[in-house]
Amino acid sequence: MAVPVADVEMPELDLDPVTWEEQRRLLVDLLEDHNWIARTPLGYVITRYDDATAMLRDDRWYSAIGLIAEMQGYDNPDFKRRSGRNILAMEGDEHHRIRRLVGPAFTPKSAERLRPFMAEVIDELLDPICARGEAEFVSEVCEPYPIPIICEMLGAPREDWKLFGRLATDIFRIFNGNLHRDGPAIVAAQDEMEAYMTALIAERRAAPRDDLLSDLIAVSEAGDRLSTEELLSLANSLLLAGTDTTRNQLACAVALFTQHPEQFRVLADDPSLAPGAVEEVMRYLGAIRGTARYASEPITYRDIEFPANTFIFPSLVGANYDGEKFVEPTDFDITRRSGIPHMTFGSGIHHCLGAFLARAELQEAFKAIARRMPNLQLAGNVEWKPLSNGIWGPTVLPIRFTPGH
After folding, report:
1. CATH number, residue 98
2. Is residue 285 part of a domain?
3. Is 276 part of any domain?
4. CB 305 within 8 Å of CB 11
5. Which of 77, 144, 251, 376 is positioned for an S-S bond with 394, CB 3.0–4.6 A?
6. Residue range 16-31: mean pLDDT, rounded
7. CB proximity list for 341: less than 8 A, separation 6 or greater
């Protein structure tokens, strides 16, 4: 007989500790006490790797990203319409269809063809700071790094990099938690992006090139193709999911390497460790710390009944520090060989579509940074975004290192 979740005895969890170290300690304590679920004012945190994976792979748990406006009481029809057609918020047959069609375009091969360009972009950004041996790393490297790669992938010319950067900054206001203030700027940026991408799609339909947009236009299964509206939604989702995540994850990585100089030296001595270093950084200090789902219908899991519309918050931090999956999970070790994938890319139908691209971007950045920034260390205090942000990382990261490389 299933027990209503409201009647189950479980710990209460404060999701707003001051630092990420405190948040991690709370979750590790829960795991060590064999608590897989904890209560919060908004719903239930899922702490263990296996439970988070199982619930994220259950299609009855819907993504809550489409409810951001509703949860903030923001009633803007244009904003709601755009949110509903975003692949990050789609569910059911519509979502399965889109993923099935676009999946072949997001392969390791598609990421590999961009590696030379990624290496060129990161070196170009590092040139001026390596000449002087110091930088505010977020604004000088992390912020501008992903935009040229997204533009190259979509086939947008270099002269439009600044335009994409400005639009991305405004669209990312969605994660600031204040739609009443930021909503008009977000919608205006989305309108401008839609007009730009509509013209670019028309160009690629007429004259395809070797880029992702042309690939997406060409995909077909049993005569089924993506409409212009669906292509626009995917381009917007790609900008949203593929830019701010990489910016923040790269900043998290460099902050982490300043705290673990021995690991940075290991990477510098053996650049072939870059793929493993990316996986360990994302496990240890992921820019995506959790996700939110709601029950689309009554769901029973582990003999607990979750009523329809119940919110759960699978903790990717908790999953990544689960001692049943990772040996000595609080140790940072870029040579770790666990065989267990970290959870920062998520799991299930909403697993990150651009995971291969993100891995390649970070690997190329890691190799260049380790080669060109010896004796990396902090040059001041790191300032961090609030832990409540959906995408998290440093806002200010002052560093210094030996110049001239």
Report:
1. 1.10.630.10
2. yes
3. yes
4. no
5. 251
6. 86
7. 279
Strands 44-46 and 3-4: unpaired
CB distance 47 to 315 below 8 Å:
yes
The answer, yes or no, to whether residue 15 has pLDDT greater than 70, is: no
Report the amino acid identity of residue 81.
R
DSSP 113-139: TTHHHHHHHHHHHHHHHHHHTEEEHII
Q: Decide: helix, strand or coil at residue 386.
A: coil
* Host domain of residue 277: 3-400
Helices and strands (H, E) in the chain, number of each type = 17, 13
Q: How far apart (Å, rounded) are the C-alpha atoms in residues 255 and 307? A: 41
Residues 105, 219: contact at Cβ < 8 Å?
yes
Name the residue with tokens 């072949």.
104
- 301-318 average pLDDT score: 97
Quote the Cα angle for 172-174-175, to 5°: 85
* Tens digits of residue pLDDT in 30-82: 999 999 999 999 999 999 999 999 999 999 999 987 777 777 778 877 776 66
Task: With beta carbons less than 8 A apart as the criterion, state whether 171 and 190 touch.
Answer: yes
Report the SS3 class of residue 141. helix
Q: Which sign does the torsion angle of CA 341, 344, 345, 351 carry?
A: positive
The highest-confidence range among 12-16, 217-221, 335-339, by mean pLDDT, is 335-339
Element (H or E) spanning 45, and its range?
Answer: strand 44-46
How many domains does the chain fold into? 1
Model's pTM, two decimal places? 0.91
For 250, residues 6+ apart whose C-beta sits below 8 A from its C-beta are 141, 142, 145, 362, 365
The residue that leads in pLDDT, 172 or 382, is: 382
Q: Is residue 405 part of a domain?
A: no
Contact 46, 55 (CB under 8 A): yes
